[in-house]
């Protein structure tokens, strides 16, 4: 077994080479030096994922999220979140967490949610007397909820690379996503109580007003349920669902909320393309790296090693969580999942772990990796947008990370939290 590409990859990660380029640099010499592999295999494997019908869902979901950010949907959801939780202690902090949860059913992208709330909510929180570091911490931490609520892009990517039903995996995210939301709202409440952060308003919003705001938001809230229902009854595939979602967002923004201007479409598409390109580049590089690992029989060897290490699925899940959490501190979570998940999924299957449950646990880890120092994606995004010190944000985000890890382990060892809704929709999974 030739392992020098793995060692080279580790070195490239340490010195900060971007993940996609690191994987290509690590394995292209390996293929060129092997007399049994034709050079054109490199090009074929690199572009293979771009020709995958399943993975075409990713750019469409991302495009739909970009359209929604311009269509007025975000404003409607923020008004609804304020009506639901604005009266609680730490009102705007609670709204921040609730908005991320609602945005999960719309954009599916934690990074998009984080960037949006940094621009819209954080300045308002600071104006209302909230500490800037606390406001930033709430924003970054709550963004890890967004990829878990359907139609999260991470869920779609995992389903494609590990050959799991997209519909089942999307449906598995509701309960864990709501658990994260409640856990983080409790943290906001405790900290706000201690620091005397007041509610956004001193009364509960009347039921009539909440109902009116809910009615205005129904066009947006219907979307995730519509996607899952369509997948369940076989009305469309995941890729076709992405197209429908993008087209639906366009119609709602233009005809219902009347916020979307056709002249904005070029900039929206450019934004979507720039968001899609890094994901697809990593997927293409990972496909090439996966071919190297398959050629060297590394997945089989790793499966055997892990099964020799433990035949207890609970110990295996603990090892997986620790591995994901540690790797998530040092590399992009999506890239980590693309590299590691196909290696661990066969072991999980042999140990009798449901792959829908395992996929949801993996995606939870990916979200947590984005808010854990030193290289959490959402940390850097928040710090860069708000022009603040990383150390200040890290200090404030620790309580949110701890409760999120607690939720992760609860979901890890109580599988029905992830499988209950998929079983309800699909029967035995």
Q: Bin the strand percentage.
A: under 5%
Radius of gyration: 22 Å
Main beta sheet: strand number and arrangement? none
Structural class: mainly alpha
- The topology string of helices and strands comes to HHHHHHHHHHHHHHHHHHHHH
Question: How many beta-strand runs?
Answer: 0
Number of helices: 21
Q: What quaternary form is this?
A: single chain
Q: What is the end-to-end distance?
A: 36 Å
| Poorly predicted tracts of residues | none
How would the global form be characterised?
A: globular
Approximately how much helix is present in the residues?
A: over 70%
Mean pLDDT, nearest integer? 81
Helix-strand layout with pairing:
Layout: H1 4-14, H2 19-33, H3 40-48, H4 57-70, H5 73-85, H6 91-104, H7 110-127, H8 132-142, H9 153-161, H10 166-171, H11 174-195, H12 207-232, H13 238-256, H14 265-295, H15 298-309, H16 313-328, H17 333-350, H18 355-369, H19 377-386, H20 390-413, H21 416-426
Q: Could you write a compact summary of the structure shown?
A:
With 429 residues, the chain is mainly alpha-helical. The chain contains 21 helices and no strands.
3D structure, described in words:
The chain has 429 residues and is mainly α. It contains 21 helices and no strands. The protein has helices at 4-14, 19-33, 40-48, 57-70, 73-85, 91-104, 110-127, 132-142, 153-161, 166-171, 174-195, 207-232, 238-256, 265-295, 298-309, 313-328, 333-350, 355-369, 377-386, 390-413, 416-426. Helix 6 (91-104) packs antiparallel against helix 11 (174-195). 50% of the residues are buried. The model has no long low-confidence stretch (mean pLDDT 81).
């Amino acid at each position: 077994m030739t392992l020098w590409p793995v060692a080279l990859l580790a070195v490239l990660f340490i010195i900060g080479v971007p993940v996609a380029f690191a994987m290509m640099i690590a394995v292209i010499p390996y293929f060129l030096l092997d007399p049994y592999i034709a050079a054109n295999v490199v090009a074929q494997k690199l572009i293979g994922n771009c020709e995958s019908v399943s993975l075409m869902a990713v750019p469409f979901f991302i495009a739909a999220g970009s359209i929604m950010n311009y269509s007025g949907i975000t404003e409607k959801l923020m008004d609804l979140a304020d009506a639901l939780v604005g009266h609680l202690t730490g009102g705007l902090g609670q709204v921040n967490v609730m908005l991320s949860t609602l945005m999960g059913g719309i954009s599916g992208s934690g990074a998009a949610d984080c960037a949006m709330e940094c621009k819209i909510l954080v300045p308002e929180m600071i104006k209302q007397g909230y500490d800037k570091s606390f406001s930033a911490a709430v924003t970054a931490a709550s963004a890890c909820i967004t990829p878990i609520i359907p139609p999260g892009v991470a869920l779609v990517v995992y389903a494609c690379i590990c050959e799991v039903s997209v519909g089942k995996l999307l449906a598995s995210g509701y309960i864990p996503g709501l658990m994260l939301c409640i856990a983080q709202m409790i943290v906001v409440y405790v900290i706000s109580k201690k620091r005397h952060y007041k509610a956004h308003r001193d009364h509960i919003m009347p039921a009539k007003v909440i109902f009116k705001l809910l009615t205005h938001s129904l066009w947006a809230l219907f979307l995730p349920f519509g996607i899952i229902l369509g997948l369940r009854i076989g009305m469309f595939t995941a890729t076709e669902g992405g197209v429908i979602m993008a087209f639906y967002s366009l119609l709602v923004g233009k005809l219902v909320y009347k916020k979307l201007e056709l002249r904005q479409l070029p900039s929206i598409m450019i934004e979507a393309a720039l968001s899609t390109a890094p994901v697809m580049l990593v997927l293409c590089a990972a496909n090439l790296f996966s071919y190297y690992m398959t050629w060297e029989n590394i997945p089989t060897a790793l499966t055997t090693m892990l099964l020799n290490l433990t035949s207890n699925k609970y110990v295996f899940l603990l090892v997986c969580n620790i591995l994901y959490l540690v790797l998530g501190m040092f590399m992009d979570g999506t890239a980590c999942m693309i590299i590691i998940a196909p290696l661990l999924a066969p072991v999980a299957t042999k140990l009798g772990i449901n792959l829908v449950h395992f996929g949801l646990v993996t995606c939870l880890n990916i979200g947590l990796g984005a808010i854990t120092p030193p290289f959490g994606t959402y940390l850097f995004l928040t710090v860069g947008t708000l022009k603040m010190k990383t150390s200040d944000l890290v200090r404030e985000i620790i309580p949110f990370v701890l409760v999120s890890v607690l939720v992760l382990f609860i979901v890890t060892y109580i599988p029905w939290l992830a499988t209950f809704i998929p079983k309800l929709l699909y029967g035995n999974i």
